[in-house]
Structure formats: structure tokens, C-alpha cells
Sequence to fold (157 residues):
Amino acid sequence: MATEKLPWFVTERSEILTTLLVTERPDLRLLHRREREDGVDFVVGLGGAAGLDTRMFVIQVRGTTTSDPDECRRAVDHLIPGDPAAIFGPTCVFVIDVRDNRHFYAWVAAPAVERGRPVLRFPEVPDFQPLDRAALDQIVDRVAGWHAALARVLQPA
Fold:
């Protein structure tokens, strides 16, 4: 999968399925959707309402025609940062198997709160988990907690 060029509809379908999953939640909105083959695929804002809200996270999307975890890992190896300093916020990858309609996710930059401070963890090997509404809820909760900790650290007392 990582070395072969997938048909255009695999990418298209995987992005559409990601859009559907994210936009089913009224508290999320797509702030950016990739228009070219470079850069970030999706930037998702928390809050849902229009206006200035800088609580967000990044989703990279990879379409595939297999649910083989090894193939999924190979497809996203290039997303694992050699230099984590290039990533400044929570980032995950969604792998969408368009043949079997199965979805997986792994953190590229996993948000955490340690001793009240926001931190990002950069796994060397992606740990893919099934992606469904409950998993998306967990992703959003982690991102919201990270942003809350960040606000406490950045805002004056």
C-alpha cells in the first residue's frame, strides 16, 4: 500500500468518510481541508460555533484497501516526525480501509496533561486503534483537556 499508487477514489472516499465522522459532532467543525497533495489534510476546531476559537487539532488521512496493521504502519511512516519540534499541536492519523469500511487512528503527536502542564508525546511506532464515534469522543476529550491545560499555563493569573 505504501509503495503503490492507489486509485484516486481511495483517497477521495477516505477523506469523505473522515469528513462525515468529524461533522457528525455538533461541537466540531472543519477549519481547513487540504486542497493540494501537500501539507495538512484537516484542521478540526473544537467548539462548533463560528468565531475565533484556537482550540484545534490536525488529522492526516490515509486511504487504503487493506486492514493489515503492518500495511497501515508502512503507509504512515513518513508522517512520524524525525524532528518533533516541527509539530506544535495534537495530531493524529486516520487510516480508512475503503474496501471493508474499517477505520483506525493513531497519534502522531499525542496530547497529554502532566502535573497540570500540556505536553505532546511523539510515539516512534504508531499504535493503531479502531476508529468509531466512541474513539472520536476520546480523541476530542484528550485534545480539549490539553487545550484547557495550555490555557491555564498561558493565561496570567
In short: The chain is about 30% helix and 30% strand. The mean pLDDT is 84. The longest strand covers residues 102-114.
